[in-house]
Task: structure prediction
Amino acid sequence: VVSTQSTGSFKLFNTSVRGKSFAVEHTLSDTVKNVTAVLDLVLAEVEAIPLEEQQQRFGNRAFKTLGATIGAKSQAWLEAVLPEEKKGGIVELKVYFDDSFGSFTRIDYGTGHEINFLAFCCCLYKIGLFNQSDHVATVFHLFRKYLAVMRKIQLHYKLEPAGSQGVWGLDDYQFIPFIFGSSQLIAHPSISPSDFVVQEVVTKHHENYMFLGCIKFINDVKRGPFAEHSNQLWNISAVKTWTKVNQGLIKMYKAEVLCKQPVIQHFQFGSMLPFEPQPPPSTLFSTATPLNLPPPT
Result:
């Protein structure tokens, strides 16, 4: 399993945004702003590198060029935002940062790459660049920006989902935004889990809640009945409260991502995030076996 230090930070991020929309007042430090700006440099490279002409529909080979460019430039990008006394952490930070954007060999992306960005965020705390007051901003600014960059990359290069489990998975690419997003919606006075399959609710609130933003993205890129192309999410919409959704997704994430060898086999451990074997947790939602819950009323 991925280091408990990484999962511990993940839980802190999840708790920090509980019941909060993106519009809520929160601390936004210059350090978070500066690291978030590094993702704009990645986005600029995406815009600058032309797509290659090819016969295959998916996996444009220009993605390999993007990977080489990130690999060549990311150290300088990170050095520019780190004070001198913290630059010793760049060796490990660069690994997690570079691996956050997908496999440049297979031209795919999945939760195994997403976990690298979570590790990158965790390491920013480990070296003391971020502190406890930055938890909300880490989710609302840094991770949110990463999600926007990845959606651009996924569509631009037509990336294959890495190890997608088809309709039984939450999403072809992401998982963590659904966890943070469900935490945001805990105790919401008017939006219940059954509402996220209602188009009008998604349209009205997607800019304030990460979960609904994820649903909007799915609705934009997929066709057909929601219950067919996103069956697991459809099942989750029958859960009564956002607290239970959030708790269940965390258990599911531990069981189906963090404890699955095919997902984390390429994750690299180091001095900041050492390998710590853990017993596999139980799961509330299993991607292997659909929930078969009744549709929401």
In short: The first strand starts at residue 108 and ends at 109. Residues 135-156 form the longest helix (22 residues).
